[in-house]
Design brief:
Radius of gyration of chain A: 24 Å
Number of domains of chain A: 2
Helix content of chain B: over 70%
Strand content of chain A: under 5%
Order of helices and strands of chain B: HHH
Structural class of chain A: mainly alpha
CATH superfamily of the largest domain in chain A: NADH-ubiquinone/plastoquinone oxidoreductase chain 6, subunit NuoJ
Order of helices and strands of chain A: HHHHHH
Largest interface: A-B, 80 and 69 residues
CATH class of chain B: Mainly Alpha
Distance between the termini of chain A: 81 Å
Number of helices of chain A: 6
Oligomer: heterodimer
Shape of chain A: extended
Largest sheet of chain A: none
Strand content of chain B: under 5%
Largest sheet of chain B: none
Radius of gyration of chain B: 17 Å
CATH topology of the largest domain in chain A: Four Helix Bundle (Hemerythrin (Met), subunit A)
CATH architecture of the largest domain in chain A: Up-down Bundle
CATH architecture of chain B: Orthogonal Bundle
Chain lengths: 180, 101
């Protein structure tokens, strides 16, 4: 087995096993850490394909950002004592056969379709990506930044506590010490 | 030799497990984790096709936009989860079933 083959199967095993952990583990904190394995494994697969920029972006945004956000949400919404049992699954017996059938179908299509593959030449991507984003993809790029801005402002508006209605009289601030 | 099919099979497994997570989990944050798995499967497919078939940057650009939208989706969805938790004191998807008090 060549090193290339070995690394691919290692990364694939990490991705699939930890994704199964996300789907099946009983403790939601374990699920979150299994998601870490999946995301890092997918980043490894990107790097394996020579998509260096996407791999690094995946590491920074998914592992460094989204996963931490998910962990915050887990810890904010579970009373700590209940974390152990907080990730119940409903109808796993009913849900597993369609998922397995879907995987079998997708895998069969993927293996048996004669894809028009060309000889893959790993080439550095970042320069080409930057040129694409600043020329023909400028509008989608700016739209993405707008979407992100709106999403973050919206998230803050949704997540904050309800403020007092400004038309109602404010209650006096509780016992503030007067300056001497 | 590792070809396109290998990556597609891994991506199919990721997608099926993500769908299983979304379908069976009761915790809203765990359902979000399933959505992240599905988005990752799609992005992996895009990058694999860009690498093995197209040879252009199009698929990689799609993967980047998927990551951007996943970040936006996670921020919004977790804000909604926090608001739901503040209101119902639970995020179990079976218990949060009223539209109006």
């Amino acid at each position: 087995m060549t090193p290339s083959l070995f690394f691919f199967y290692l990364l694939a095993a990490v991705v699939v096993i930890s994704a199964a952990g996300v789907a099946l583990l009983r403790n939601i904190l374990y699920s979150a850490f299994a998601l870490l394995g999946t995301l890092a494994g997918v980043a490894g697969l990107y790097l394996y394909m020579g998509a260096d920029f996407v791999g690094v972006v995946q590491l920074i945004i998914y592992v460094g950002g989204i996963l931490v956000l998910l962990l915050f949400a887990v810890l904010l919404t579970n009373r700590i004592g209940e974390v152990r049992i907080s990730n119940a699954s409903a109808g796993l017996l009913l849900g597993a056969p369609p998922a397995i059938a879907l995987f079998a179908l997708c895998a069969r299509v993927a293996v048996h379709t004669p894809w028009p593959t060309t000889e893959a030449v790993p080439a550095p991507l970042t320069a080409r990506l930057g040129e694409a984003f600043l020329h023909e993809l400028l509008l989608p790029f700016e739209l993405a930044s707008l979407v992100l801005l709106m999403a973050l402002v919206g998230a803050m508006v949704i997540a904050r506590r309800a403020t007092q209605d400004p038309r109602e009289p404010h209650e006096p601030r509780a016992t503030r010490k007067e300056a001497p | 030799m590792i070809g396109l099919q290998h990556f597609l099979v891994v991506s199919a497994a990721l997608f099926a497990l993500g769908l299983l997570t979304v379908a069976t989990r009761r915790n809203a944050v765990a359902i979000l984790m399933g959505v992240e798995l599905i988005l990752n499967a799609a992005a992996l497919n895009f990058v694999a096709f860009a690498h093995f078939v197209a040879g252009a940057v199009g698929g990689v650009v799609f993967a980047l936009f998927i990551i951007v939208l996943a970040a936006a989706e996670a921020a919004i969805a977790l804000a909604i989860v926090l608001a739901i938790f503040r209101h119902f004191r639970t995020i179990d998807a079976h218990d949060v079933s009223t539209l109006k008090e």
